[in-house]
Fold this protein.
Amino acid sequence: MEEKKKTQQKSKLYIFNRAKRPLVADFVCSICIRIFIAVFGIIALFLMLFPHSTESQIEKRKLAEFPQFSLQSYFSGEFTKGVSTFYDDTVPYRDSFKTAGYNFKSIFGLHTDDEVKIVGAKELDKKPKPVEPSQNQTSQKPAESSVNENSQASDVSKVESQVSEEESKPETSQMGDAEYTVENGIIVVKHNGHYRALELFGGGTGNTYVEALNNFHKDLGDDVKIYSMIAPLASEYYTPANYSGFTASQKEVFDSIASRLDDGIVSVDIDTVLGYHTAEDIYFRTDHHWTPLGAYYAAQEFAKAAGLDFKDISTYNKNTIEGFVGTMYAFTQDPNINNDPEDFIYYTPSNLDDCVTEHYTTDFTDMSEWDFFCGVGDPQHNAYLTFMGGDEQVVKVNTNVKNGKKLAVVKDSYGNAVPGYLFGSYEEIYVIDMRYFDLNLVDFIKENGVTDLLFTMVTYSAVGENAEKLDILRTQ
């Protein structure tokens, strides 16, 4: 009898629970829906009420703008696509949210799927190929502390002057094994207690670059002296030995390019010179550019090749911007880079007050006078804009030197740090970005009486798509 009662009770409880289960499920679903509606409502209010971001400091770019409406753009879908992009790209406090997100991932050791896509597919063969050096290459002996005999040698220059011609060239990898991670295709190295982000180099021929410079030489003849000065990426010197198989030798590419340039073109070898200064801060840790000190050693080697008077760095005024975090944080989003800022140190020439800098639009019109060295925006993030304020312009510097020499510098952003060291070497200096110039460069050089033409850019520009723009400048 007892067993029968227990069975009946269980049966009733089962029937009750079975009847109650849909009610509980409906209640839970109702609560979840209300939560989702509340969350989406809060997000919608946040997006509508708070001001949208217009520029990303960590990504170094202007964010998307709200698209203009037209019937054509609406029916083609471009307008609605633009609206979606606008709201996605301009979230209020975008940089703060991105930083918090990457800090959260870093704490829990999380990584995005694309962090190792570019680098590490296969190890590169870095064994140097024998390349016969051309006669127009400058000596690989490090430059003297100064071309100008009257200048005093600084401590930083003495290091270079002590290196003899017989010493071996620097190895491609200057570092031993080191801790590293790969973030968005860029290696982040921990060395001597600091973090350094490095773009790795996969190789290239530089055929387009060689052809363009040879064509300039044909068009300009021997009346204009042409110089080629390609700046290596920092990975040439700071890639740890335990990762060196995944980046190619840039020196090998530079030697190959130099061997194929016309005899009338001087190839300035700064790869070797910089290799003797890797213990100094010649490249930023948090930015993809070289430092102004690295650019100084390059300008010094150029002056030596061109036979110019050149002031020692001890004659320059030293300026420091503290707390600099450059483009590598935007590229990697690695909080270690953001949390390990560095000093941005730049040097202004002693004759700066006697020089006049003119800024023109890219068609060399609409001139305005303002400083060559200038502050633009947040100095902790935009310090590299100290040089001329950026790239999309043509800059002319009239110095107090009266020697009849006129220089045109054709460059990418790496070249921005070079002209300031030549204010004591040339009477006039024209600075032209290879990506932003609307005139025929051959005609421009002839019309302005340019005597020297310097092509200076980073490896990627010389072997990549930017090189295609050089011949466009020649023929447009």
Summary: Residues 54-110 form one domain. Residues 39 and 45 are 10 Å apart (CA to CA). The chain has three domains: 1-49, 54-110, 155-475. Residues 102-173 have pLDDT under 50 and may be disordered.
